[in-house]
């Protein structure tokens, strides 16, 4: 698969989303048994954690990563909740088969490897943040499955609103062109870029790229995926339960 052709086609699938330059190459890890750069060579990945971030709530009392909220077991309430001057957001990220990072000059820097890592941060309403999400394979030619979920806390419920979700699972669950096309089509159809219309945050200016894959091998599994977007946190307070009909524009 030719990188320039695949990138052009993927960008078309997410119009008006643009394609961006690759966010950099992964560094080789040390391996005595496998020559550097050969298939299967370990890639050096950043350990799970956070820096320069306003971590908040009891889920983060042991530092970063924080304890993940049980999304199925009714574990919704934040203790203590955010004050009146802030809104709380949950960041979940992983790179199955490798690692992932989320970086923002205003929100902070967050990293995970194969296992899901969670972070809870307080953000000022009325602010926008440029964000870069990158997932990289952990072994040369091994591919990666990017995972990113951003949710907003609604104190009135308490509820959580799904704001943004990134998945790209092709052959063996790894990201390739077809899987990226499917995610792109879904993302393009979201109102204001968010999954749940009852949340107050808006996703815009999405643009993504990859440094490539393995050609026709394994249906062109990508070695990495980089996504840039803007998170715009509106000032209005959330009022309705997730996916309530009152939130859908008439």
Number of helices: 2
Roughly how many Å is the radius of gyration? 18 Å
Helix content: under 10%
Helix/strand/pairing category: mainly beta
First-last Cα distance:
43 Å
Low-confidence stretches: 1-35
Find the count of extended strands (DSSP E, 2+ residues): 11
Number of domains: 1
Strand content: 25-35%
The main β sheet shows up as: 7 strands, mixed
Query: Order of strands in the sheet with the most strands?
Result: 1-10-11-7-4-5-2
Q: What string gives the helices and strands in order?
A: HEEEEEEEEEHEE
Report on the architecture of this protein:
There is one protein chain. By secondary structure, the chain is mainly beta. It has one domain (3-16, 44-69, 78-241). The chain contains two helices and eleven strands. The strands form two sheets. The chain has a seven-stranded mixed sheet, with helices on one face. Strands 6-3-8-9 form a four-stranded antiparallel sheet. The radius of gyration is 18 Å and the shape is globular.
Core attributes:
single chain; 250 residues; mainly beta; 7-stranded mixed sheet; 4-stranded antiparallel sheet; 2 helices
């Amino acid at each position: 698969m030719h990188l320039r052709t695949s990138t052009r086609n993927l960008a078309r699938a997410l119009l008006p989303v643009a394609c961006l330059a690759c966010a950099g190459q992964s560094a080789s890890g040390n391996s005595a048994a496998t020559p550097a750069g050969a298939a299967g060579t370990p890639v050096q990945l950043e350990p799970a954690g956070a820096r320069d971030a306003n971590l908040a709530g009891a889920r983060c009392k042991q530092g970063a990563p924080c304890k993940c909220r049980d999304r199925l077991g009714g574990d919704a309430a934040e203790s203590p909740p955010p004050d009146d001057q802030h809104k709380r957001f949950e960041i979940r990220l992983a790179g199955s088969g490798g690692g992932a990072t989320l970086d923002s000059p205003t929100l902070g820097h967050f990293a995970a490897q194969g296992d899901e890592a969670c972070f809870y941060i307080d953000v000022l309403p009325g602010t926008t943040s440029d964000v870069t999400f990158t997932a990289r394979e952990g072994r040369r030619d091994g591919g990666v499955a990017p995972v990113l979920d951003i949710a907003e806390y609604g104190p009135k419920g308490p509820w959580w609103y799904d704001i943004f979700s990134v998945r790209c699972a092709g052959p063996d669950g790894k990201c390739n062109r077809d899987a990226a096309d499917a995610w792109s089509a879904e993302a393009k159809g979201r109102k204001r870029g968010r999954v749940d219309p009852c949340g107050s945050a808006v996703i815009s200016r999405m643009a993504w790229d990859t440094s490539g894959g393995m050609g026709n091998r394994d249906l062109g599994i990508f070695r990495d995926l980089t996504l840039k977007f803007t998170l715009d946190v509106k000032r209005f307070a959330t009022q309705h339960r997730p996916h309530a009909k009152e939130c859908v524009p008439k």
